[in-house]
Amino acid sequence: MKISAAVLAVILTAATLCAPTSASPHGSDTTPCCFGYLSLALPRVHVKEYFYTSSKCSNFAVVFVTRRNRQVCANPKKKWVQEYINYLEMK
Asked: Where does the Chemokine interleukin-8-like domain lie (predicted)?
Protein backbone atom coordinates (compact mmCIF):
# COMPACT_ATOMS: atom_id res chain seq x y z
CA MET A 1 0.00 0.00 0.00
CA LYS A 2 2.85 2.38 0.83
CA ILE A 3 4.46 1.70 -2.55
CA SER A 4 1.24 2.54 -4.40
CA ALA A 5 0.96 5.87 -2.59
CA ALA A 6 4.60 6.66 -3.35
CA VAL A 7 4.19 5.80 -7.03
CA LEU A 8 1.05 7.93 -7.24
CA ALA A 9 2.86 10.85 -5.60
CA VAL A 10 5.74 10.58 -8.09
CA ILE A 11 3.36 10.45 -11.06
CA LEU A 12 1.38 13.47 -9.84
CA THR A 13 4.57 15.43 -9.19
CA ALA A 14 5.92 14.61 -12.66
CA ALA A 15 2.63 15.61 -14.27
CA THR A 16 2.61 18.90 -12.37
CA LEU A 17 6.18 19.70 -13.39
CA CYS A 18 5.63 18.83 -17.04
CA ALA A 19 2.27 20.52 -17.59
CA PRO A 20 3.40 24.17 -17.76
CA THR A 21 6.31 23.33 -20.01
CA SER A 22 4.18 22.50 -23.00
CA ALA A 23 4.14 25.05 -25.78
CA SER A 24 0.80 26.66 -26.51
CA PRO A 25 -0.32 29.32 -29.01
CA HIS A 26 -0.44 32.88 -27.69
CA GLY A 27 -3.66 34.69 -28.59
CA SER A 28 -4.53 34.54 -32.28
CA ASP A 29 -0.90 33.96 -33.22
CA THR A 30 -0.22 30.27 -33.89
CA THR A 31 3.40 30.56 -32.76
CA PRO A 32 3.69 28.74 -29.43
CA CYS A 33 4.80 30.52 -26.28
CA CYS A 34 6.27 28.85 -23.21
CA PHE A 35 5.30 29.68 -19.65
CA GLY A 36 7.82 27.40 -17.99
CA TYR A 37 10.80 25.22 -18.78
CA LEU A 38 11.37 21.50 -18.55
CA SER A 39 13.41 20.89 -15.40
CA LEU A 40 15.16 17.72 -16.57
CA ALA A 41 16.72 16.83 -19.89
CA LEU A 42 14.67 14.76 -22.32
CA PRO A 43 16.29 11.63 -23.69
CA ARG A 44 17.95 12.91 -26.87
CA VAL A 45 16.64 9.98 -28.92
CA HIS A 46 13.09 11.27 -28.37
CA VAL A 47 13.81 14.69 -29.91
CA LYS A 48 13.36 15.03 -33.67
CA GLU A 49 13.50 18.82 -34.20
CA TYR A 50 13.40 22.17 -32.44
CA PHE A 51 12.45 25.80 -32.93
CA TYR A 52 12.59 29.02 -30.95
CA THR A 53 9.56 30.82 -29.56
CA SER A 54 8.40 34.06 -31.13
CA SER A 55 9.70 37.43 -29.99
CA LYS A 56 6.06 38.17 -29.09
CA CYS A 57 6.27 35.67 -26.24
CA SER A 58 7.17 36.82 -22.73
CA ASN A 59 9.64 33.92 -22.21
CA PHE A 60 12.30 33.15 -24.79
CA ALA A 61 12.56 29.38 -25.11
CA VAL A 62 13.60 26.48 -27.27
CA VAL A 63 10.72 24.19 -28.17
CA PHE A 64 11.76 20.60 -28.77
CA VAL A 65 9.41 18.45 -30.82
CA THR A 66 9.46 14.81 -29.78
CA ARG A 67 9.02 11.78 -32.00
CA ARG A 68 5.39 11.68 -30.80
CA ASN A 69 4.96 15.31 -31.93
CA ARG A 70 4.78 16.65 -28.39
CA GLN A 71 6.19 20.14 -27.97
CA VAL A 72 8.29 20.68 -24.86
CA CYS A 73 9.79 23.98 -23.71
CA ALA A 74 13.39 24.22 -22.58
CA ASN A 75 15.65 26.97 -21.28
CA PRO A 76 18.03 27.98 -24.10
CA LYS A 77 20.73 28.86 -21.54
CA LYS A 78 21.00 25.30 -20.23
CA LYS A 79 24.01 23.32 -21.43
CA TRP A 80 21.98 20.23 -22.37
CA VAL A 81 19.65 22.35 -24.52
CA GLN A 82 22.60 23.86 -26.40
CA GLU A 83 24.10 20.39 -26.88
CA TYR A 84 20.81 19.05 -28.28
CA ILE A 85 20.56 22.00 -30.68
CA ASN A 86 24.12 21.38 -31.90
CA TYR A 87 23.35 17.68 -32.32
CA LEU A 88 20.19 18.39 -34.33
CA GLU A 89 22.02 20.90 -36.53
CA MET A 90 24.72 18.32 -37.32
CA LYS A 91 22.16 15.70 -38.42
From this structure: 30-88
The amino acid at 39: S
Domain hosting 6: range is: 2-90
pTM, entire model: 0.68
- Residue 33 phi/psi, 5° resolution? -120, 155
pLDDT, tens digit, 9 for 90 and up, residues 17-64: 444 455 555 555 567 899 999 999 999 999 999 999 999 999 999 999
Q: What is the CATH number of the domain that holds 63?
A: 2.40.50.40
- Quickly list DSSP for 20-81: GGB-EE-TT--SEE-SS--SSPPPGGGEEEEEEPPTTSSS--EEEEETT--EEEE-TTSHHH
Q: Report the domain count for the chain.
A: 1
